[in-house]
Amino acid sequence: MTWRKTAAAALLLLIIFSYYLVLSNRPFIENLKETNNFLYALTSTIIMLTLGLLIGLTWSLLSSPREKPETVHEGEESEKQC
Questions:
Q1: Among residues 64, 50, 62, 60, which one has the least CA distance to residue 14?
Q2: pLDDT-based confidence at residue 74 (cuts at 50, 70, 90)
Q3: What is the 3-state secondary structure (H, E, C) of the chain?
Q4: Looking at per-residue confidence, does 74 or 63 come out higher?
Q5: pLDDT by residue (tens digit) across 14-67?
Q6: d(CA 34, CA 28)
Q7: CA 49, 59, 61: angle at the middle one, nearest 5?
């Protein structure tokens, strides 16, 4: 398993855990909506940005091409030595 897949799996677990935290604190967030609209908007924005960035980072880790080792051809090797 490459480090990209390991990091993506860890990020997916972090996304699931943070979504669970949001759902478990839903009554608090709804109460915040009724009492202070600014804090509710700020909290909602932070939650959405955090989850969006985590999903984007996971997507980029999974969709990026695998790194290929650099191969040096015989003709190029002699040119580099000059």
A1: 50
A2: low
A3: CCHHHHHHHHHHHHHHHHHHHHHHCHHHHHHHHHHCHHHHHHHHHHHHHHHHHHHHHHHHHHHCCCCCCCCCCHHHHHHHHC
A4: 63
A5: 999 999 998 899 998 889 889 999 999 999 999 999 999 999 999 998 887 666
A6: 10
A7: 115
Q: Provide the whole-model pTM.
A: 0.66
* Joined tokens for residue 63: 């969709």
Using alpha carbons, select from 74, 44, 60, 54 the residue that is nearest to residue 13. Answer: 54
**Contacts (Cβ under 8 Å, ≥6 apart) of 15:** 51, 54, 55, 58
Check: CB of residue 62 under 8 Å from CB of residue 4: yes
